[in-house]
Amino acid sequence: MLGRLWDTDGFWAFRHSPAAILAAVVAILIFGGALLAPWIAQSNPYDLATFTLMDGLLPPVWEDGADPRFLLGTDDQGRDMVSAILYGARLSLLIGLMAMLIATVLGVGLGLAAGYYGGRLDAIVMRIADVQLALPAILTALLIDGIARGILPTSAHENLRVVVLTIAIALSLWVNFARTARASTFVERNKEYVQAAIIMGQHPLRVMFWHILPNILGPLLVIMTVDLASAILLEATLSFLGIGLPADSPSLGTLIRIGMQFLLSGEWWILWVPTLFLIALVVSINILGDFLRDAFNPRLR
Amino acid sequence: MLDVKNLTVTFPSRRGDFTAIQDVSIQVKPGEIHGLVGESGAGKSTIGAAIIGLLQPPGYVASGLMTLGDTDLCALTPEQAHEVRGDRISMIFQDPQTSLNPLMTIEDQLIETIQAHSDVSTSAARKRAVDLLEEIGIKNAADRIGAYPHQFSGGMRQRVVIALALCTDPELIIADEPTTALDVAVQSQVLDLIRQLADARDIAFILITHDIGVIAQITDNVTVLRGGRVMETGATERVLGAPEHPYTKSLMAAVPRLDRKLDRFLVPGDGGPPTASDKQGVDAEAWLLEGVQEGGLALEVDSLTVRFAGTRTSLFRKPDPYVALQDVSLTVPAGRVLGLVGESGSGKSTLAKAICGLVNPSGGNMRLGDAALPYGKARARRDPSRRVVQMVFQDPYSSLNARHRIGDILAEPLALYGLEPDKAARHALAIGMLRLVELEPDVIDRYPHQFSGGQRQRIAVARALLARPRFLICDEPTSALDVSIQAQILNLLKDLQAKFNLTILFISHNLAVVRQMADDVAVLQSGQIVEAGPSETFFEAPKATYSKSLLSLTPATNF
To answer: With contacts defined as CB-CB under 8 Å, which chain B residues touch A211?
Structure first.
């Protein structure tokens, strides 16, 4: 099984693309670090007992006056930057992945139905998608955040901020999936294997999900990777602007926002370390997405 | 004049070098039409591409000599090759739809080509273009030259493509499947034109085709290729009439004859109707026979009319409907094969779709056996006709779901119609059915892309049969297949029809195929039945004028 995967054209192209390999290594390191944060980070940024103000504002180890315990320095609270980033990436990736998955399910479901049935359903779904496209993601997030604030009690809202943020991001991303799924479904629908299934009298849901979906998965997988990067960036933007997560549950965006205060005061690492980390994460995911798009495109093969 | 000696073309790939053409030698004299014939993968088009210097990278000429007159085609620099291309060698492609630029008028395309190769004024080039169009048989060329390609019919477009190839007065024209996309009537005109040009202008043609009929009609000499090697070469009449090489013999045996009906194609490796020898095959056969004890069902179609929404010409007016079928009435008697013939656009496939419920008719009645057959939209998902009527599609590459295993594809009708509740029994039946269509049982875990077109069509037939149908629609089941594979599939269909006494509606544009398959024939022209009757009567003494012209235009392959 593994041998066969190793031998496929896609994997062959992967083995011969240094950029893709580098991106995969970076992405795996970041995902692994985020996943294992509670075990490998030396302090927990959520737990006030694990750090002291005495260690505040220490520079990275290669600067003068550094403390070897803190590889990339500490922030003003005395939190270890490495630990903060690992925990921050954990939260960012969780929100990004969940938002991407919700957007996939919503978008693919609606897109498949629109492409399969066509006509009025198609028109309604696609006009909603057009409206959604006209609204900037930040506006959508603000809207949902505002609604959530209005209908939920304050304490519940604070607890549900992650959920609200995830839904807001998902709602601004589903359109990509819906459009791609609809266009591919239109093409597949007229192929003879789908017509054969319809003639046999198979249930429309079975035709859509058992027959058509596996055949349009290629482009959707590519969009999933690219949109994962978008979701992470969107979360960072929203948190940076203060709409997303509060300062005590640091995601990458929150860390960057905190770091902004120190940009001109000499403690550059508090801003730059999480920023570079975010760039590395997003760029590597995007390179992988580009690679997948080429690998899945039969015309470039 | 053109002399190709020991040409070998190699395509390097990561799995080693693939030799597409091996040791091929061809000579073509001025005024000669030289046919290259072979089945898919024979390397016909690769030879053409090598001669004109347009091999798809990473392919390259590994060894051999190609000379045109005194010019060594292998030794040219890219610039010199570009000069030769167009100037001395031209090319005609298969599809006139895509080889003309849809956004340029015919005039602009011709003038552009003429001026690219000779330094003449626009008005002189225009005059030359008009003369060329007159020469290839476009009337009122001076008026029509300003038209866009879509304003011409398919045959006219192919004439324009030929005019483009003639612009520079080439010595050699390579025609790659020039008539494959055309109907027989147009095909015969285009072939006549090619013959005329070869005789009048002394142009040498290399005609690449898979169609033995085309080869027989116009070529002087023919080279039969298989797997990149020359099997046999010589004068067309000799090679086709008295083939020496076993491959040519089997190829000729597989070509359906228009002049008489044979019981089956005598292709090599065909030992008469197969007898299922192993237990699984026998079981599947018994199971099928049990389901079709009653035999096939008769189909009656009574004044069926199908209209589609036409193209909108005004924003405020409802578009006029396009009538695909007009008052079509026909009967397929139980247990017989009706051949439905007609050119493209005549409504053959629309009729098939109306019968199986994909298209909603706007009037008329259909009866299957004793029961009325409801229209597509009114037909329930659980309607018994969904099982009883099955269809074999034209394109075996898209009629099987590429992401499902063969076992799942075959078991689907069994589970869907509740024919076999037990999963293990379904698996066994699927294997038995594979034996019946002469495939190995161990292919059951493979995916469709691992099969050739013919094998896929066998799987499609197996899937249709597993629903225990009593009425089978075959919509051009072999037109995407090579001729030897076509013979095998037709033999298979004949055997299965005889064994299970199926009623078959056999749709084809190929009259020779229909003659071999059908008991009765119906001819469709622009959505109307022009003639219907027993097959032998139709082929011996057609009544309608349209049928007569169809029959006379079909290239005959008998020698």
So the answer is: 401
